[in-house]
């Protein structure tokens, strides 16, 4: 996670400095109908499907018909700022395999032919503005999606950190309870040992007396005393086991807390790195006009 965030931050900086395109540039592209002048815009971190889907949806708003068999094509498109007549608009996304960059090629055909740098300056400027407006809108969408995903990751990391903090608190409270129970078990051992020390001589003496006299009443009393002695012994053994268990539990919890603290430190680093990434993405979004 840490390496990924660092890489993304570095890539953001690098792409922002080297590749980010903010204005439309003229070019040409081989559409299915031939090579035509184009208005190009380079995007990062997206794919042809997304860009073409955007243009298809937008062209539907201004065109008589839209298809996307080989490229997105808007027929009978009405853009008053460019021409009073309807236009034909072609759009295709081009992305080389393994490249994070995608070029959106937009070609606009008027009644005077395909619009390019040699066309009427006002018409050309209006066409550039049209493609620029939509390209900027796409940039905002992509930047907002990237920011939203990053903020979601930050929320998740912060929730993970809060969970670790709560788990540490619970473990610390459990250690206190375990230590208290260990003390109680130790006290129980003292109490039951005292009972055993008191009952032991009585049982021995009564057993000798019962064997000597063969008195049935004394024999019954002896059985009752022996049960009390056995009960005290059982309680003593349970107390010993409980003390050991509680001490072991406290030791295990202490180890858990140590690991928890290490996990918290790593998570805090991840949170700070994610905050840095979120900040960079906010700045990236804010920089888009």
Describe what this molecule looks like in 3D.
- The chain has helices at 2-18, 48-62, 121-213, 216-286, and strands at 25-31, 34-44, 65-67, 72-77, 87-94, 101-110, 113-114.
- By secondary structure, it is α+β, with helices and mostly antiparallel strands.
- A hairpin with a 6-residue loop joins strand 5 and strand 6.
Give keywords.
7-stranded antiparallel sheet, Alpha-D-Glucose-1,6-Bisphosphate, Chain A, domain 4, 289 residues, Helix Hairpins, 2 domains, 16% strand, alpha+beta, 7 strands
Task: Please summarize what this structure is.
The protein has 4 helices and 7 strands. The protein has helices at 2-18, 48-62, 121-213, 216-286, and strands at residues 25-31, 34-44, 65-67, 72-77, 87-94, 101-110, 113-114.
Task: Give me the secondary-structure topology.
Layout: H1 2-18, E1 25-31, E2 34-44, H2 48-62, E3 65-67, E4 72-77, E5 87-94, E6 101-110, E7 113-114, H3 121-213, H4 216-286
């Amino acid at each position: 996670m840490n390496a990924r965030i660092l890489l993304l931050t570095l890539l953001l900086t690098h792409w922002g400095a080297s590749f980010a395109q903010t204005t439309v540039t003229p070019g040409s592209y081989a559409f299915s109908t031939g090579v035509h002048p184009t208005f190009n815009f380079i995007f990062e971190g997206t794919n042809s499907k997304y860009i073409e889907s955007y243009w298809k949806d937008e062209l539907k708003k201004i065109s008589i018909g839209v298809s996307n068999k080989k490229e997105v094509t808007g027929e009978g498109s009405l853009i008053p700022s460019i021409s009073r007549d309807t236009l034909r608009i072609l759009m295709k996304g081009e992305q080389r395999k393994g490249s994070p960059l995608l070029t959106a090629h937009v070609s606009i055909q008027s009644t005077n032919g395909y619009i390019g740098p040699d066309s009427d300056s006002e018409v050309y400027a209006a066409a550039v503005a049209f493609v620029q407006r939509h390209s900027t809108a796409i940039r905002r969408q992509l930047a907002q999606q990237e920011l939203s995903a990053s903020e979601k990751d930050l929320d998740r990391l912060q929730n993970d950190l809060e969970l670790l903090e709560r788990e540490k608190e619970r473990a610390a409270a459990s250690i206190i309870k375990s230590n208290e129970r260990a003390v109680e078990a130790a006290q129980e051992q003292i109490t039951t040992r005292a009972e055993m020390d008191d009952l032991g001589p009585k049982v021995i003496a009564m057993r000798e007396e019962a064997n000597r006299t063969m008195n049935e009443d004394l024999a019954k009393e002896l059985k009752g005393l022996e049960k009390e002695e056995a009960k005290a012994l059982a309680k003593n053994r349970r107390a010993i086991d409980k003390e050991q268990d509680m001490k072991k539990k406290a030791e295990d919890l202490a180890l858990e807390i140590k690991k928890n603290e290490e996990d918290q430190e790593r998570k805090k680093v991840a949170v700070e790195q994610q905050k840095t990434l979120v900040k960079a993405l906010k700045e990236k979004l804010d920089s888009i006009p």
